[in-house]
Design goal:
Elements: E1 14-16, E2 23-25, E3 27-30, H1 41-53, E4 58-60, H2 71-84, E5 92-97, H3 112-126, E6 131-136, H4 145-157, E7 161-167, H5 171-184, E8 188-192, H6 213-219, E9 223-226, H7 248-252, H8 265-280, H9 285-294, E10 301-304, H10 309-316, H11 326-336
Length: about 350
Amino acid sequence: MYQPSDSRYTSIPYNRCGQSGLLLPAIALGLWQNFGNKNELSQMQQLIFHAFDIGITHFDLANNYGPPPGEAERNFGRILKNDLAAYRDELIISTKAGYNMWPGPYGEWGSKKHLVSSLNQSLQRLGLDYVDIFYSHRPDPHTPLEETMQALDYIVRSGKALYAGLSNYDAAQTAHAVAILKQLGTPCLIHQPKYSLLVRQPEVQHHTLHKSLLDVLQENGVGCIAFSPLAQGILTSKYLKEVPAGSRAGRLLGNGAIESKDINAETLLQVNRLNDVAQQRQQSLAQMAIAWLLKDKKVSSVLIGASSVTQLDENVQALRNTQFSNEELQAIETILNPVP
């Protein structure tokens, strides 16, 4: 029977999520790609156990994670029931709804019907009465934002989630959604944007708000957890020369997770130059990419994926040095945004 390490709370820092009472580990484990039916349950168990042993308490899911959709929740639910049930109150378990999940008009987007039905299905797969964080996974251009936020408010008040979150909402959408939730009395806890050295959209001022997403979150006391911090593996040592055909990035090319335009000669040159900066910091490129996100106190946590304990440990080592000198920051900006 699994027994977690007695020293599990000694190695990873915990950051306050916005202005809430919730502390999140600086690094959380996402179950997007490696918890489907092509993976061995024993391997998944090993990864979850090791993550918890080193202090990762936050496990992030969505209804459609797999493959097939739902399988990641189902597999995590098995591990939870068989090995971690006694430690449920030490865990932060999050899930989401909004992407296509089942046939017909109610299987995706942001209606109250979809969000509530999807969470009920997720809870069944997970074997839980509630999740800690439930996200609207993407904004719905056809459903009034008020309805989507009312659904999140209802879900929290019903006890099926402790906190409400948003993902993939831009700065203006986030500002509006946060205001609605505040009025309803269920504050937005957290936002999960795609954010990395190569994807800087959360820093960009919105054309109508004249504020960035990060500004909106900070002003409203909303936490930020960055996903895809390694740009689907591009910001790792694997791709310093080329994209191997069997690699994760190679597999993801063309399926929407990575576009071919994201991996080209210019990107690979930037990655190599970033790797030089990382080596000078005595970090791997992946470690520097994670540390670079955590240098900003607006970022509460970074969400990583891992296919092995070794990979997880390497990424967690980023926490040894999240400080950057002005010279290092300038070098990084020069690499990513060279002056013509």
